[in-house]
Amino acid sequence: EVQLVESGGGLVQPGGSLKLSCAVSGFTFSGSAIHWVRQASGKGLEWVGRMRSKTDNYAAAYGASVKGRFFIFRDDSKNTAFLQMNSLDTEDTAIYYCISGQGELRNDMDVWGQGTTVTVS
Amino acid sequence: QSVLTQPPSASGTPGQRVTISCSGSSPNIERTTVNWYQQPPGMAPKLLMYRNNQRPSGVPDRFSGSKSGTSASLAISGLQSEDEADYYCAAWDDSLPGWVFGGGTKLTVL
After folding, report:
1. Pairing of the two strands A45-51 and A34-39
2. Rounded to whole angstroms, how far apart are CA atoms B52 and B36?
3. Of B47, B56, B98, the CB nearest to A47
4. Which of B45, B90, B98 comes nearest A61 by C-beta?
5. What is the pLDDT of residues A25-36, one digit of tens each?
6. Shortest CA gap B69–chain A (Å)
7. What is the pLDDT of residue B33?
8. Where does the pLDDT of residue A91 fall: very low under 50, low under 70, confident under 90, or very high at 90 and above?
9. Sign of dihedral through CA atoms A120, B5, B7, B12?
10. Which pLDDT score, from 0 to 100, does residue A28 have?
């Protein structure tokens, strides 16, 4: 079964940093992109960013609201991805989801994790 | 203000057909394909439709998608109580570049 499990969320002060992890199981993650999407309480979905696979030169792209502050990393040997969040603001408070896919959906937002909550206060 | 525009709410009775629209522009919907996501209350989103009209394995054929120009739509026929959820459209936007989501449509089954 394909599964993504986020961890690392918690309470952080404004201006602080936090690193989220996303453990992927059930398929070979190395050939797929990893996306991060967030959702503030009672609000819609906001794309945070994505990193493609080694085949696509680990190309990264980020949403305007996080560009220059958030960075995506991946360790394909451990089937794990990370979201490094710096200079956090109260506006970054949200549930953070990691998403990946396989096959024809390897670059798409297919399978979602259950999310981890980040509170900036 | 979302780049993609969806109606905030939609409703229908069991068995009815409901359509949810998603309006975009040239850098996004017109140039690429649209995905749809279903998010039941308190749960993570789930991919419902990809490449405009492709259903992932396990999604009932009551769900269908289409795209024309700068707009896309999701249709749900034979509405069921379990379809009550928030629905989001998403597409890649060349001008940003990045993925953009619609603001979401809350579907109520009356």
Report:
1. antiparallel
2. 8
3. B98
4. B98
5. 998 889 999 999
6. 21
7. 95
8. very high
9. negative
10. 83
3-class DSSP assignment, residue B57: coil
| Nearest by CB: A44 against B44, B96, B101 | B101
Q: Which residues of A touch B99 (CB under 8 A)?
A: 35, 47, 50, 109
Evaluate whether B66 touches B51 at the Cβ level (below 8 Å).
no
Condensed to tens digits (0 to 9), the pLDDT of residues A10-22 reads 999 999 999 999 9
B104 CB neighbours in chain A (<8 A) are: 44-45
Q: Which two tokens stand for residue B17?
A: 């057909």
The encoded tokens of residue B82 equal 């379990």
Name the nearest CA neighbour of A118 among A91, A99, A80: A91
Our CA-based measurement puts residue B1 at a distance from the nearest CA of chain A, in whole angstroms, of 11
- Is there a contact between B100 and A47 if contact means CB atoms under 8 Å apart? yes
What's residue A4's pLDDT? 97
Residues of chain B with confidence (pLDDT) below 70: none
The whole-number pLDDT of residue B32 equals 93
pLDDT at A74 over 90: yes
B-interface mutation test, from A72, A109, A111, A114, most B Cβ less than 10 A away: A109
Say how far apart CA A94 and CA A98 lie, in whole Å. Answer: 13
- Per DSSP, the residues of A18-30 read EEEEEEEESS-GG
